């Protein structure tokens, strides 16, 4: 029998919590529910779930505090659930070690996709996009790390070294959002904080890889937060 993954669902609104729980259960996950931050921390410690879905608006404490507390001892994947317009809260959560976020109200397929991505990353499994020989393929986009070649629809794309580094960083975190600060630190080091430079490079990358740079399908903008390379297009 297949070992079912255990998800800790932290949500204080019973209606939402029960609905999500039903959906997850019917998708073959085991679910434990917590309504309060205090209970969430206790259950995370006692049950060692495979993933935590953490609403940031909780009655007894700030979800950010719950995140910090759990992160102080555990690398369990945590997806935070945040309200629309709370971009600063999302960035803060990501900087404090959340793996991703999802914005309320969200669709079920979006939620399930996020969960699959995090579980895959945390288990370090190779998905079908990642061949063992160091390649990523998503839609018409091919990245070959060994040959350092990027192709779109079988045509080689000429990227600057910085553009190549950015696309590799995003592709190695495929499906996950990366914050502006994180990308800038990874690419330029800790001494530059130049959002403009990243934007310019991203515009150039999109001009080279996207059929319609104004409506990118490979690398999407997460407004106020950062960029995400999609693992399905
Ligand atoms: Ca709430």
What does this structure look like?
- There is one protein chain.
- The protein is an alpha/beta fold and 233 residues long.
- The protein has 2 domains: 6-123, Response regulator (Rossmann fold, 3-Layer(aba) Sandwich), CATH 3.40.50.2300; 135-229, Winged helix-like DNA-binding domain superfamily/Winged helix DNA-binding domain (Arc Repressor Mutant, subunit A), CATH 1.10.10.10.
- Helix content is 40%, strand content 23%.
- The protein contains 8 helices and 13 strands.
- The protein has helices spanning 14-26, 37-47, 63-71, 87-95, 108-123, 161-172, 180-188, 195-209, and strands at 6-10, 30-34, 51-55, 78-83, 100-104, 130-131, 135-138, 141-144, 149-152, 155-157, 177-179, 219-222, 226-229.
- The strands form 3 sheets. It has a 5-stranded parallel beta sheet with strand order 2-1-3-4-5, with helices on both faces.
- A hairpin with a 3-residue loop joins strand 6 and strand 7 (135-138).
- Residues 12-13, 55, 57-58 line the site of calcium ion (CA).
